[in-house]
């Protein structure tokens, strides 16, 4: 009734997949425990290694009752098995055919078939009444058909016992009568021993003279009357004397018939005690020693009795056949003991087997191995698919079976809104939840991610305003004062649209913080921590000194003289020097970089150095292309959404790289050299709000200078004194070496 109700209301669950059994789904029912499963689920279970019986020959086990079955279900039938693929009828039990069951009931002695409609579960007991006799068969009673209770009367049983001589004295009882408890005396076959046993014990072994063997030598006189029987106590009559003349036909070694020896003059035997004539040949009987390769034989002349000990040596092989050793020659008294010892203790070599075991992972490593299957006795121990438990099966090939551990506790998400009800297979992940995460967060911004099972929440992506790592900021209250004094315009502002989880933000501009030396500023991109002093100053100072020395100028040697001498040699500051010093102190207090020009105050009249102009005159096309690329880059970054935009030039020589670095300073563009010679190149980066397009390009400045310059005078050659040794033409000055200050690596 419970099965019918659960199947009808679709509340019955399959034990394999833990899903509800639908009324239209093909099912299979176990005939031992009557559990119902999905047909596809039971097919997969029957083919899996975990379902196999322990002995390996009994088929597969039912997931519920563990009853072994040999055949795998293939078709969908009703509960009584008459109809294949039964159709569902609203007025009938699901998965039934609607006809009479007709199956045999569980009671073995009930001849009636089940008379109710096709149903799940066991058939009910038979309602018919029959007449049954008691256990002893003397009385009869009317009882329910299939009733398992036995009927007993109060009479004595009286059935004949196993001995066939006495009757049972017990009251009417179930089963066979107990064996006869009376004791009788039995004698052995040879008649030398007696013992008392229960009546009827081993009566079938009696030969009319005895009932058992005492395992001693028989000792009865043979038919010759001179020799005794040497066999163990036996039920049959003793054999003939083996030395009777009518029994012996050959010599002791068996090679020559006695009739041939009688022709040669031997005496004919009359009785069993007469000696057997010898042929005089070598005995040749096989001895108990030797091996399969070579059989040792007796080397004595034809004789009666046992052969003498073997005089040869034999080879003994280990059980795997890899090694052998020579067996020593032994005496007669020691021979039997030695042969017994060899049979009891097998010779084994020390060779270890290198073959793979059945698992394919481990080696056999057995000493003197004779195994053919090489089964692995180790435990597998690999992690199962759940990641929590390990395989406890013997080491095997292929993948391990799925973890069968099951939890009967509810599995919920962190907030408890989503629930997976038991049974929960081991390794099941918490259910997905679409509710907003309720875990505590470091910030107070709105939470936009869903509930999750991970302990750490995703980083907060709420857009905020933050300062860069170099603290490039300006006090807004001093903006008007700074701009009105034309000291330094505000360089940086608070950066917007920064995700909350980002802490170290670089503005992409140069640091420009004053170093500890007080003479240089940090040229690294906005960075975290203290500015690097030694590397930058060392590189720049070395380049500067080399340039000054090559140009013949003076070199700073303040580190080589005393402070007193340095103070005496210092120049006096003028008004311009004092103004620069005052502006530098104010810039340091307000953390303002004096190299930037966001309001284009200094861009009205760009200044090109004489050296840059001279280089541009030498290669005007190259300078024109560079300026065109820089103007396009600055216009693109100022009009676009990106704050930065870069361009990489192909590898070029040192002079061209120096022109790009100097032009980048005029346009407010960052320039850095990368790689080593001869593939060293320059990368320029335009920054929005910092990079500018000057009103006058270098090429236009050169054109104006050429137009305003007077025509060159006609040269006049003046004859000079030959003794002077000089000509009227002045020699051109030697080109001064130029060092690329921007081409120094960090």
TrEMBL record:
Localization annotation: Nucleus
GO process terms (BP): negative regulation of transcription by RNA polymerase II
Domain R3H: 620-688
InterPro entries named among the record's database cross-references: NFX1_fam, R3H_dom, R3H_dom_sf, R3H_NF-X1, Zinc_finger_PHD-type_CS, Znf_NFX1, Znf_PHD-finger, Znf_RING
GO molecular function: DNA-binding transcription factor activity, RNA polymerase II-specific; RNA polymerase II transcription regulatory region sequence-specific DNA binding; transferase activity; zinc ion binding
Record Gene3D superfamilies: R3H-like domain
CDD domains with a match to the protein in the record: NF-X1-zinc-finger, R3H_NF-X1, RING-CH-C4HC3_NFX1
Keyword Cell division: no
GO cellular component terms given for this protein: nucleus
This protein's record includes keyword Lipid metabolism: no
The PHD-type domain, residue ranges: 11-68
Region (Disordered): 704-732
RING-type domain residues: 14-66
Keywords noted in UniProt: DNA-binding, Metal-binding, Nucleus, Phosphoprotein, Repeat, Repressor, Transcription, Transcription regulation, Transferase, Ubl conjugation pathway, Zinc, Zinc-finger
Leader sequence segment: none
Top-rank lineage group of the source organism: Eukaryota
Family: Belongs to the NFX1 family.
Protein name, entry field: Transcriptional repressor NF-X1
Gene giving rise to this polypeptide: Nfx1
